[in-house]
Amino acid sequence: MSHEQHENPRQNVTFAAATETGHGHGYLRVPASGSGPGVVVVQEWWGLTDHVVAIVDRFADEGFVALAPDLYGGRTTHDSAEAARFLAELPPERAARDLAGAVDHLLGLPQTTSSTAGAVGFCMGGAFVLALAAQQGERIGAAVPWYGVPGPETDFSGLRAAVLGHFGEEDASVPLEAVLATEARIREQSAAEVTMHVYPAPHAFYNDERPSYRRESAELAWERTTAFLRTHLS
């Protein structure tokens, strides 16, 4: 097992959150221009890893103010059993509180030019992104889940964000039936614009640290994501 605790060099920002300690931590990058639209990046179940940091950096290079909250309090892992345990120890309500605090912090930064935040999440984070958008309403202007959907009990009636999803047709853990059912529920329960793209790829096809990485699908989904965020967060 490889995991880290306590002093995490990936944490460079602290923000107020409705947690037991009253605050959350995360990794923030501001673009070289000094300002831009705000995007919250939600981790996979491995934690706030170097891969997630690289995603935040890439968003900053694209002109966004990007913040990845650390939902595991500094812990990361490369072991799937340990990742499953970390996830099991993270109640959805607590994750939502941490993420809401990150949204508040991001929108309150003088460097953030957008009045709403974008939310982009991967795997576990993809499911959290849709739940966050439903909870936060008009504060989230664009929601982009990558290969993750929340449970069928999620109420999307409060969702106001435009939704763009990226899923793999070879994904055994997030079957297309679940993706289509989620899309149908979003359409039924909210007036949100929703587009779900399917790629010839497995789960986690954007993660270039894993054998599931598929460069062509990853880059196409990335281009679609940045264009979508620019459109809806301008």
Distance between the termini: 43 Å
Radius of gyration: 16 Å
Q: Strand count, sense and closure of the main sheet?
A: 8 strands, mixed
Write down the overall mean pLDDT.
Answer: 93
The percent range for strand residues is 15-25%
* Structure class: alpha/beta
Describe the secondary structure blueprint for this structure.
Layout: E1 13-16, E2 23-29, E3 38-42, H1 50-61, E4 65-69, H2 80-88, H3 92-108, E5 117-122, H4 124-136, E6 140-146, E7 162-168, H5 176-189, E8 194-199, H6 215-232
Parallel strand pairs: 3-4, 3-5, 5-6, 6-7, 7-8
Antiparallel strand pairs: 1-2, 2-4
Helix pairs in contact: 3-4
Polypeptide structure, described:
It is a single chain. The chain is α/β, with parallel strands linked by helices. It is 35% helix and 20% strand. It has 6 helices and 8 strands, in the order βββαβααβαββαβα. It has helices at 50-61, 80-88, 92-108, 124-136, 176-189, 215-232, and strands at residues 13-16, 23-29, 38-42, 65-69, 117-122, 140-146, 162-168, 194-199. An 8-stranded mixed beta sheet has the order 1-2-4-3-5-6-7-8, with helices on both faces. β3 (38-42), α1 (50-61) and β4 form a beta-alpha-beta unit.
